[in-house]
Amino acid sequence: MDALYTAAATATHGRDGRTVSSDGTLDLALGVPVEMGGNGQGTNPEQLFAAGYAACFGSALGLVGRQAKVDVSDAAVTAEVGIGKQGEGFALAVTLRVELPEGVDAETGRKLVEQAHQVCPYSNATRGNIPVDLVIE
After folding, report:
1. Which CATH number fits domain 1-43: 1.25.40.10, 3.40.50.1980, 3.40.50.1370, 2.20.25.10?
2. What is the Cα–Cα distance from 3 to 16, expressed in whole angstroms?
């Protein structure tokens, strides 16, 4: 693959530290969620992954929508990223909730969401590695 763009970020002190992008536009305090025994002060890797996946999937949906000549520019994508114990370690699971704009019929919307799932780089990276459920709302 010839990369069109490469993002870089450095995290220090793991989940209770800080993460900063190489260009400085992202600079966030990290914190362990209360549900995992932390104080919840700061964002966490699952939130960052959810934000990236939702944005990327929305762009993929826009691409396939334009190709099909269907306006999905007002679609909203919510990514829910769960983390839990699996064996000796931890695993992730994702639910993508896609809210399609009015005027997009259910069958067309389903096809576009499935096509976006084939195009999205996050979907391609996770395929076969973690479960991803697609929900159209």
Report:
1. 2.20.25.10
2. 31
The pTM assigned to this predicted structure is 0.95
Distance, in Å, from the CA atom of 78 to the CA atom of 121, rounded to the nearest integer, reads: 16
DSSP, res 101? P
Average of per-residue pLDDT across 80-89: 96
Helix ranges (H only) for 32-120 are: 45-67, 106-119
Is 117 in contact with 128 (CB distance < 8 Å)?
no
Closest alpha carbon to 45 in 90, 83, 5: 83
| Phi, psi (deg, nearest 5) at residue 104 | -95, 115
- Write out the H or E segment, with its range, that includes residue 126: helix 121-126
